[in-house]
Amino acid sequence: MLDRFWRFAQFFSYPVWNGLSLIWRGLVVLVLLPALAQGQNFEGYRATTLDVVIDEWNGTTKNDGPGVSISTPQKIKFVARMREGPKVCSNAALESVLMMLDWADLLKRVSITHCFALTSVSGRVVVAYVQDVLVPGLQTDAKIGQPVDIYADFLAFEVNADRSRNAPIMFVSRFEPR
Questions:
Q1: Extents of the domains making up the chain
Q2: pLDDT value at position 43?
Q3: Among candidates 176, 134, 142, 174, which has minimal Cα distance to 42?
Q4: Cα–Cα distance between 125 and 82 in angstroms, integer?
Q5: How far is CA 126 from the centre of its chain?
Q6: How far apart are CA 147 and CA 142, in angstroms?
């Protein structure tokens, strides 16, 4: 009789323990989810200003004709004012630069179909690409005319015949309103 009871108890306790194990695993995932969601490491970004980046590249490309000067990708952090909110834009120039850098698959992994305008400390206006995942936060958290910490990947520099229109080609990976 005791043997039948034991088999009966084992039959019902297995799903309970299995279920508790699944609940325990689910709780562990929920606790670790914020750390996993922040997958990018934002250390190693060079602190600079947008004006310094533009001046450096104007000096580097002073003897070049109009076109795009590709650089070794640089992670930069700077403060700028948001001039315009994010808008859908063509990413053809970014796609071309990424293909030249052999990063063509990046746009398959990360959606970048928006741009927004920034103003440097000296008043230079630059349009930067922004990851689509950041657009809702930019629209709600960052205010037009207010300073924003920008973490960007600088990829290339567009050189124009009118040197005042030279601009970096970069995409924003993170922002922090001030």
A1: 1-39, 46-177
A2: 80
A3: 174
A4: 10
A5: 17
A6: 8
